[in-house]
Design the sequence.
């Protein structure tokens, strides 16, 4: 089995300096655990003008990294697609969204489309399936829920931040890891036609009342969270208090109705 | 109501005796026509006339000119009947704006409702109609703002099949915009449709009007702005949900192409284990504060209710609960649906952590505690006595 992990040139969320994307290091950790338990070939792939801090991924459990050298304004998609097709990988892992580029999270989907592979999003754990040629993927859902999927290989999987934390950096691993440099394909990126300006945080919607509601309703929605306006029971017997609480919790659906 | 308005200066000038070097006034003389001609206003009578009868709140209608109608007799106050929202029909839409709500379990999430608000914004700007593309069985679509409803032929977890159906609908129905929520499922679907159709996706729109949408790019350092494209995924809390008018939610028929099974061979939903899920993403949190001293009962209660354990700073400082369980500004800010506070008075820092919770239940001995005021169900009682009573009641109901 051959596994590839796609690494993108990210930027640190606070300082803005070049840094690996944390969820991609988690993907490296997932793949390295899979290799240790079940045996496989593991390779990292990066397409861009410069490796920079992505060399650190070698210290986080990646045995070798292939750098496809492209221009600064080139689209990485054709280079990655060609390298992945040539490598005949069974499992391709990628992060969810890059940090520092377009940040739209479209590349794994476009890549899956170009390679004709199925894509599974938001993996938190990986295990081989019972029959050969299948993979068990645990998908992270909102509010801590999970979905267990059985998928046919080859497949492209994006990794969720709920996956196990990335392995700590090991200097010896970084020294041992092999960095291979290959020329990529020149593919000038098409212009998006969007105007760009410095980012300004937009105010988030606070009032719960909708746009068409009356002024009285908007006022009520803006103030009711602070004032509560709920039921008040003063010194009820404990049994009555317990009945009221259970009825309220069952009414809003957090406790099963009996 | 309107007397002639007095003009004291003119009256004084009329009383002045002419021809004297020093000013002399004959106060006995009556002024002849010393009025200014403007009628004197009676603001109280005007207000009585402008008063709209029959409303609970005092309301004045200033547009009614005073004197047009007689002063109405005071009527007994009646609560106005909440008028049903007007139904708006769009029989011949100029274009279609489609949206794909998540609607887990057939219930629209707040994010879905905001998506409807965005779709209505785009559609109403040019006389278009909103088409909701839903999995089977989503409720409340008419009130949410859907003019048409198209049911997608999807069974089970099959995002690729859903994306193929959406791609077919996008091409065949000539949709001007197709909107997705930027959530785990909606975002995934949006990118699948973008890859299938070759259209550019405007991912995570943070503001949206009929003329322009914006999104963050380059690690939230630049803002991209442009006219709304075909495929948009909307960030949460960016657009207000639709309200005011009711829409038809007419079912539409469309022949979707048959899809073959994808690469996903089996899918099984595993519900979150409330004991292990992190506080930040827990759905129901039960917290202990300084009013709780019996933590064995508290843990038993958490297990019985199926809640995620939380605690106040006091309890965590005392080492009675782990620091990871602390709720509040210096602990975890919750995103839970329901918060059950046992023996917590509600310091401002604690209430910050609960600000996003929809429902709060509080048990506290202090009637004037801030948590009692915040709660939807507030019980002024000792939490130490309520906890065993709750456990007994749950056990009774389980055995019954």
Sequence:
């Amino acid at each position: 089995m051959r596994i590839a992990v796609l690494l993108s040139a990210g930027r640190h969320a606070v300082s803005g300096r070049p840094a690996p994307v944390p969820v991609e290091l988690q993907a490296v950790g997932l793949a390295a655990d899979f290799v240790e338990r079940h045996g496989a070939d593991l390779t990292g792939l990066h397409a861009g003008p410069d490796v920079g801090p992505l060399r650190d991924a070698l210290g986080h459990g990646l045995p070798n990294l292939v750098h496809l050298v492209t221009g600064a304004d080139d689209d990485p998609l054709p280079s990655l697609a060609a390298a992945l097709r040539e490598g005949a990988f069974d499992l391709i892992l990628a992060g969810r969204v890059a940090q520092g580029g377009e940040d739209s999270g479209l590349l794994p989907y476009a890549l899956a489309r170009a390679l004709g592979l199925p894509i599974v999003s938001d993996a938190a754990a990986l295990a081989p399936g019972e029959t050969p040629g299948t993979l068990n993927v645990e998908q992270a859902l909102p509010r801590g829920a999970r979905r267990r999927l059985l998928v046919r290989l080859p497949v492209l999987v994006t990794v969720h931040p709920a996956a196990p934390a990335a392995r700590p950096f090991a200097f010896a691993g970084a020294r041992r890891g092999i960095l291979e440099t290959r020329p990529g394909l020149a593919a000038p990126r098409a212009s998006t036609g969007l105007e760009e300006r410095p980012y300004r945080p937009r105010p988030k919607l606070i009032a719960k009342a909708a746009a068409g509601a009356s002024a009285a309703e908007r006022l009520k929605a803006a103030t009711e969270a602070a004032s509560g306006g709920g039921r008040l029971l003063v010194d009820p017997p404990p049994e009555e208090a317990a009945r009221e609480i259970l009825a309220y919790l069952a009414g809003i659906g957090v406790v099963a109705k009996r | 109501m309107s007397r002639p308005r007095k003009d004291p200066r003119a009256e004084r000038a009329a009383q002045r005796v002419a021809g004297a070097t020093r000013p002399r006034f004959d106060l006995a003389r009556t002024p002849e026509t010393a009025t200014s001609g403007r009628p004197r206003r009676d603001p109280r009578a005007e207000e009585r006339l402008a008063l709209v009868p029959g409303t609970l709140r005092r309301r004045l209608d200033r547009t009614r000119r005073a004197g047009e109608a007689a002063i109405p007799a005071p009527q007994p106050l009646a609560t106005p009947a909440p008028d049903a929202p007007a139904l708006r029909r769009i029989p011949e839409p100029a274009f279609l704006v489609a949206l794909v709500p998540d609607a887990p379990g057939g219930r629209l999430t707040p994010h879905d409702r905001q998506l409807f608000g965005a779709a209505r914004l785009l559609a109403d700007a040019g006389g278009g109609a909103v088409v909701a593309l839903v999995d089977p069985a989503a409720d409340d679509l008419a009130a949410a703002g859907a003019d048409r409803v198209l049911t997608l032929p999807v069974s089970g977890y099959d995002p690729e099949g859903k994306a193929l159906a959406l791609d077919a609908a996008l091409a065949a129905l000539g949709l001007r915009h197709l909107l997705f929520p930027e959530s785990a499922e909606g975002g995934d679907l949006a990118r699948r449709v973008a890859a299938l159709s070759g259209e550019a996706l405007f991912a995570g729109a943070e503001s949206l009007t009929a003329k322009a949408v914006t999104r963050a790019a380059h690690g939230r350092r630049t803002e991209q702005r442009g006219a709304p494209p075909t495929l948009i995924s909307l960030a949460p809390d960016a657009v207000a949900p639709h309200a005011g008018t009711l829409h038809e939610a007419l079912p539409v028929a469309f022949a979707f192409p048959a899809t073959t099974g994808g690469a996903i061979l089996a899918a099984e939903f595993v519900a979150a284990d409330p004991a292990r899920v992190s506080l930040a993403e827990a759905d129901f949190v039960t917290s202990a504060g300084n009013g709780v001293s019996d933590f064995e009962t508290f843990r038993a209660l958490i297990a019985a209710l199926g809640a995620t354990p939380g605690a106040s700073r006091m309890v965590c400082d005392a080492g009675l609960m782990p620091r990871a369980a602390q709720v509040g500004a210096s602990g975890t800010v919750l995103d839970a649906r329901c918060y059950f506070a046992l023996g917590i008075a509600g310091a401002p820092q604690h209430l910050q952590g609960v600000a996003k919770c929809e429902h709060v239940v509080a048990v506290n001995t202090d009637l004037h505690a801030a948590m009692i005021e915040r709660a939807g169900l507030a019980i002024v009682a000792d939490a130490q006595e309520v906890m065993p009573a709750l456990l007994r009641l749950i056990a009774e109901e389980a055995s019954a």
User: Anything to note?
Assistant: Residues 4-40 of chain B form one domain. The two ends of chain B are 75 Å apart (CA to CA). Chain B touches chain A through 96 residues (CB under 8 Å).
